Each structure stands twice: as C-alpha cells, then as structure tokens.
Amino acid sequence: MPDFRTLLCSALIAGTALGGVALAPLAAATSADKPAAQPTVPAPVAEEGKPVAGSDAKTSDHTPTSEKPAPAGEAATPAASTQAGAPPAAQSDSAEAELARGAYLATAADCVACHTKPGGKPFAGGLKIATPMGQVVATNITPDPDHGIGRYTEADFENAVRHGVRKDGSYLYPVMPYVSYAGMTDQDVKALYAWFMHAVKPVAEAQEETNLSFPASIRPAMMAWNFIASKETPETGDSSTYDPLRRGRYLANALEHCGTCHTPRNFMLSEKQDHYLAGTSLGAWYAPNITSSKTGGIGSWSEEDLVAYLRTGHVAARAQAAGPMAEAVEHSTSHLTDADLHALAAFILKVAPMEDEADHTARDAFGKAVNEPDIRTKGPQRIDDLAEMDGPHIYDANCAACHGRDGAGTQDHYVPSLFANSTVGAGRPDNLIMTILKGVDRTAGKEHAFMPGFDGQSNVQRLSDAEIAALVNYVTATFGSGDHHVTPEQVKSLRDDSKPVNPPAKGQ
C-alpha cells in the first residue's frame, strides 16, 4: 500500500507540473481575477488540514431528489458592527456575536487538530503530517504579524481558506482541505477571519518550512491540480438559518469535510464523487464506509445512534472511535450543538448506499459472549520467560482483565464488548490492529475513554508483530467476522506506517 500511495502521489505532482506548462495561458488569465500577490510580506498561512494529501470535496449533490431543500436567498445583511450609524451597544453586541460564530466555525472545521503540535500552543503550527513525499509542516495561523497571519487582509484569508493560495501568492498543498472550505458562505469566512484576528492569542513562534522531495517541492504544480480538481461551490445566505437537511450537508461537506477521509480517490487523488463516503484507506487506519448501506455502511444505525457517536465517540453494541476519528470527535464533533449533530447525522444517513467489497454483513452484527474455560496455569509466568504465546493466552494475559474472558466488557460499557463491535466485525482487520498497537485515548465532554496501546512504546506490554497477529486472529475468530489469517508482516507494515513524526510533549 505505501508504494502504491507513493506512485499516485508522484503521478499527481508530475502530472500537474506538466499540466501547469500546458495550461499556463489559461492559468495566467485566471490568476488575474485573484488578489495580487504581495511577496514582500511572506507571512505563512494555514497550510495543512486532515492528514490526507490531495483532498477534494464534492460538487455533486448527494441529497435524494425528493428531499432537496429549496434554494436559499441572497447573502445575509452584514453584521451591525459594519453598518453606518449603528449605536455603540449594537456594534458591540454584533461584534461579540460574530466572534462567537467564528469560534464555533473554527471548531466545526477542526482547525486546531492540524495547526497545533503535541504540547504546543493553540494554532501555532508545527505539527508534521506524513505524506509519501515527505512531511508537510502545519503553519502558524495565530494573528502574530511576523510568524502567523497577522498581516492578512480578509481577502488574503479568504483566498487561502477557499482557494489554497497564500498571501505571498504561493500555492498550498491540498493537505489543507481548502477544496471543502470553498463551500463556506461569505458570512462564515468573515466570522472565521474576525475570530482568528481578534480572539486567538498571537504566538511569535516560527515553524520550519515544508520541504518535500522533488517533484512535490514544486508548488506551482498545484495551480494545474486546482484547475482540474473539483471544489465545493460556495453556499449563500445565512448558514445558521438553513433547514436541517441543508445544514447537515453544509456541515458534512464544507466544515467537517467528512469526504476528505471517508471517500475513495481516483488516480489524480481527487475524491470519487460517485463513491461518496464509501470508505478508503488512510494509510495505517481505514476510514470505513458510512453510507446508508445496511450491510457495508451504517444504514442500520438510528439518527440517535449516530448523534451519540459524534458526541461521545461511543455507541454501545455498535462502535467506538479511535485513531483519526477519535481526534475528530474530541476536537470537533463533540462540541457541536444538539441541533447541528442531528442535522449532520440526518444528512449522512440519507447518503446513497454503496456496497462494500469487504463488508457484506453489518460490521456490528457479529459475535456473542462466549464461555471460555480458564486457561491460566496455577503458577505465574516468569517475567524473563520470553516464549511467544498463542492467541488465547495472549488475550487472557493482556485483554481479559478489562474485556472479560467472555468478551462482554463492563456493565457500564466503559470497556466495550468485543462482540457487536464494528472494529472486531469489520471485514478489514486494519483498525483492530491499529487499536491494539496505539490504544485509545479520547476525551469528549466529561467522558474520557482510555485503552493502553501495545506497540514498542507501551508502558503496559510490548507485543511483537507475531503476537499481535495471533491476538487479532483469535479475537476476530472468537467474537467477530472470522479468522482473517493476519500475518506478522501485515502488522509490521501498519506499525511502520504509523510511526510518529511528531515527538510527544515533555511529560507525556
């Protein structure tokens, strides 16, 4: 898989570089419509988004024809603070409302997840996002004038967020999901700009420059990719007044950019519009099919199930969020209003069903509690006994204390059952392997979910590739979709793909 991703990435960059030459006259005409570049002020801008290169959102409408909302009217009247003659109190109230709106939008767009490194200051950048062509370094997007975006005008900000072009005219890499943010309304872009400029604390901290290998290092190549790739069409009107279905579509496509991770991509690394939310690999983790398919997706879920998952990352007897989805829940969806959660869930559950190549039965429909005999010996195992155990013994030694020998977890569901569990029942073992390697550490509201990892940095037990393969095969055969015959080589491949590029913060 890594070699395939590298091939695709190379094809994208090389192809767009050649396309940039062929399309130069057209690109020059297009650039005349954009704000003039100001190379004398090379302040950085938000450059990174979700850790998937080549992100591209939908221009097609995935809402069923019979349920499409009526078109909205024109854009809302500007805020009172910008209107001539408004009383000071009205201006203050309007300014506060705009800042509050901007703060909520930044959370819904999950800006902090990529623009804050472990242990770093909010939005100061520095997070390293691994790609096949090297590490993309998230930039400082605080209003610091020298190291952040403090000298950006609103037009500069809009050009970066919606079109992927920095103040100095350089093109951003589509790790930053500007193709999704392109769908934001003018009012929301304005509120987001106001919040970053007036509410975020400036951080005078420079970050290292992104330095990708050739030909990805040629930023102008992105000009041709941007011309070819589809983008969200900007919405109109006041997004806070949309009907629920339209609001859900706006949240899913423009702000939360669900398709960035859950939609497979074509050879140009653009999202396949006819496979919207059908699931795809993110490298080590797998973003599953979340269409309305009752076998391959989440069509058997109720709206309340999905709302609970987005709010807490946990739905008993269905699923638990780990990896990148746990981060999305912690930083973004758990902070959405109840109305927005219901709107988002209602929209996703109406997405056209797409069957899955690996999942032919609902992932959370497998297994039951088992009555396994106690296989423990009378004497304790010596700590210097390095003999590798088989699957049942590895489970008993490392998992049974929390999940139970019967796999039922705890009565309060803090420790989930291993049967009726979408990770264990999935037709692909990737996420189960990654959960065992990396564990779970997710906070949503007042709820904290924790499971230790068992990789080479584990403080509990460091399991080898062969031991994890044996454990995965035992767990899926006993509680899930069957023995997947996972090999140590498969585990090693995922382990290598998931090696951290960001050192943990001191004290962690």
UniProtKB/TrEMBL annotation:
Basic and acidic residues composition-biased segments: 482-499
Cofactor entry: heme c
Position of the signal peptide: 1-24
Gene3D superfamilies xref list: Cytochrome c-like domain (1.10.760.10)
Domain of life: Bacteria
InterPro entries recorded: Cyt_c-like_dom (IPR009056), Cyt_c-like_dom_sf (IPR036909), Cytochrome_c-type_DH (IPR051459), Membr-bd_ADH_cyt_c (IPR014353)
Stretches with biased composition (Low complexity): 30-46, 69-92
Binding positions for heme c 2 per the UniProt entry: 258, 261-262
Record: residues binding heme c 3: 399, 402-403
Cofactor binding note from Swiss-Prot or TrEMBL: Binds 3 heme c groups covalently per subunit.
Residues involved in heme c 1 binding: 111, 114-115
Region (Disordered): 30-95, 482-508
Keywords assigned by UniProt, alphabetized: Cell membrane, Heme, Iron, Membrane, Metal-binding, Repeat, Signal
Name assigned to this protein: Sorbitol dehydrogenase
UniProt organism field: Acetobacter persici
